[in-house]
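Structure ticket #2291
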Amino acid sequence: MTQFGRGLRSAVFYLGFILLVVFISAVTCALFFLPFRLRQRIATFGNHMTMLWLRFTCNIRIEVHGADNVPLGPCVILSNHQSTWETFYLQWFFQPATVILKRELLWIPLFGWGLALMQPIAIKRSKPARAIRFVLKRGTQRLQAGNKIVIFPEGTRVSTHQLGEFKTSGAALAKAAAVPIIPVAHNAGHHWPLVGFSKRPGIIKMYIGRPIDSSNKDARQLTEEARNWIEQAL
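Resolution: structure written out below.
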């Protein structure tokens, strides 16, 4: 496919993507009174539809390996971060899920309001020490309620050709709440790039590792174990 063809398909994708996000955000806000899990199923149906639209317009398919490794109960998911794709797909795939995100996203009209109804853990990056305490407190509450916590320990999106340093807050949360860590690796950045407009057709592959017991190691050791697994999977 030519560069022009990819650009045209990407433009069509973004048009439908924006309309879908606006529509689902409005529906989610209108249904604020529903129980959280039902509300999230409705909201993340939009995430699922986004993936179908991505396949239809850009010929990008998704393969998941290791789905049997996901426990039924609460856990902390540590994933690499290289695309917008994972922020949508992981919340749908691992629901009921809570995502840690920057607080400024909640200020976006309609989209941010709908996002706030998904019970995220919104942090202020300019105050990291306070943010870590907030993640531990709210994260433990969400895990006790039966949610899974999705964390991108690199803190920001990183190029597909490298894996950034991992922060230890996710492992510390898993240890404090006595839940397992699930490492996740994917190559979404190859097809939905961090930089640039065009999408590249192909297969986004997501690998889910076996649960890592958080009880017998400290947060730094757990973080390193998860990072090593993700690096090898990539």
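Closing remark: Residues 140 and 177 are 6 Å apart (CA to CA).
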